[in-house]
Specification:
The chain is of the alpha+beta class. It contains 13 helices and 21 strands. It folds into two domains: 264 residues, no CATH class; 129 residues, no CATH class.
């Protein structure tokens, strides 16, 4: 079902560029004030393939310099292209929010593009037109896949794990460490039998987009443009594929974190009272827990919210000295907690519809302490904390052809730009 082919990557010559200095996070998580840091860190930093130096220049950018820079760096030998195709196995060693050290091992491959209607590559969230238009300009200018889509596959029995581990043991071709302390190791997988096993396994499996929906849909749009301009169909044309990183959703190192919600001050005149909560949420129980400093939120959620995983439950924090833990007796098998939060809590308690949420009435901090701090600084009115979804939730919903509410999942860590590139040109 999923076409995941070995390919000839373009990658940094590690004798010319220190990989730790040139990799960057995905474009959509780089803050405007962080761009200059990456631009000045190294003259060959991969941010030059992703973003303009100033955010204000983005709207008018045609990204012509991206293609020129790619060609220049290849010509100078800063970037080299491997002679033979292979899979590129990447290990990410990182510290989880709980404090434990985890490893996620996946691989880069050339992904055959399929329309969503084929149910091969499955989305789990909706996209916005603006980012896709911007990414399409980059793809047109570069004729290369410079950052990857991040896909999950289902391998409960860990069939591919020994193959990926062998590739890393056989010899790493690059190592790096990013600003968040994530350690990277990259290896090539070229053994013919192992390549055949991986390709056959993926060919029997659907995949779910964990991160990079805009990049994937941009690749589809570019493919359609190129098809329209081609004199005859060519299923092997470079535009029929894109660059993807594949990881097993059921591997021990796969970490799916919750994305919490903060109702912004402008969208909430005052925090709901006890009567407001009770009137809007009939049938819900509420337990109160003393809560003061923002940095204690993680331990409170671990003690009081995490035990309710699998049932409709959330916590509310208005910075007034108590954490409210809401729960309902019924199981959440028939619906997602993130969907319940949007349809019942944000809609009923705060009178916010989907359009208001998409327009900025709610923020989505990537950690509970950040959410708590946002409320205490006065930027937010109420923080809403949730438990993480499970891989089963993701595969179940996408198999049914559904998508989740905005910002439902956070697969950690992100896949950086700069480990490997895929150039459409020879």
């Amino acid at each position: 079902m999923t076409i995941a082919r070995p390919f000839r990557a373009v990658r940094y010559d590690t004798e010319r560029a220190q990989l730790s200095n040139v990799i960057v996070p995905p474009y959509d998580v780089i803050a405007a004030d962080e761009r200059e840091t990456y631009y000045t860190r190294d003259p060959h930093n991969a941010i030059r393939f992703e973003l303009t130096r100033k955010a204000s220049d983005e709207a008018d950018a045609d990204y012509r310099e991206v293609g020129e820079t790619l060609a220049q760096w290849r010509g100078e030998g800063v970037l080299l292209r491997d002679d033979e195709p292979g899979y590129y196995v990447m290990r990410q060693r990182f510290t989880a929010p709980s404090g434990g050290v985890l490893e996620r091992i996946g691989f880069f491959a050339e992904l055959g593009l399929e329309d969503y209607s084929a149910r091969v590559v499955r989305p789990h969230e909706r996209t916005l037109a603006g980012p896709k238009a911007d990414r399409l300009k980059v793809l047109r200018a570069s004729r290369a896949n410079l950052s990857s889509v991040f896909l999950l596959y289902e391998d409960r029995e860990q069939k591919l794990a020994p193959i990926l581990a062998r590739a890393l043991e056989a010899g790493m071709i690059a190592e790096a460490r990013d600003d968040a302390g994530v350690e990277y190791a990259l290896a090539r997988l070229t053994d013919a039998d192992d390549v055949e096993t991986v390709q056959a396994f993926m060919g029997d499996s659907p995949t779910v987009i964990a991160d990079g929906h805009h990049r994937y849909e941009t690749a589809l749009a570019y493919r359609d443009e190129c098809r329209a301009n081609a004199t005859s169909p060519n299923p092997n044309a470079p535009y029929e594929s894109t660059l993807a990183f594949f990881a097993n959703a059921y591997a021990p190192g796969s970490l799916l974190l919750p994305i919490h919600r903060v109702v912004k001050k402008d969208a909430c005149a005052a925090p709901p009272t006890d009567d407001d909560w009770a009137a809007a949420l009939p049938g819900w129980q509420c337990k109160r827990v003393p809560f003061g400093e923002a940095d204690s939120i993680a331990s409170l959620l671990e003690a009081h919210l995490e035990p309710l995983t699998g049932t409709p439950a959330f916590a509310a924090d208005d910075a007034q000295g108590e954490l409210r833990i809401f729960s309902r007796d019924s199981k959440a098998d028939d619906d997602l907690v993130v969907r319940i939060l949007e349809n019942e809590v944000l809609a009923s308690v705060f009178d916010l519809d989907t359009e208001a949420i998409r327009n900025g009435a709610v923020s989505f901090p990537k950690s509970a302490p950040r959410a708590a701090d946002e409320v205490r600084k006065g930027d937010g009115c109420v923080a809403l904390y949730i438990n993480a979804l499970s891989p089963d939730d993701v595969f179940r919903v996408t198999a049914e052809g559904e998508v989740m509410p905005q910002k439902s999942t956070f697969f950690y860590p992100k896949v950086p730009t700069g480990m490997v590139f895929r150039d459409h040109r020879p």
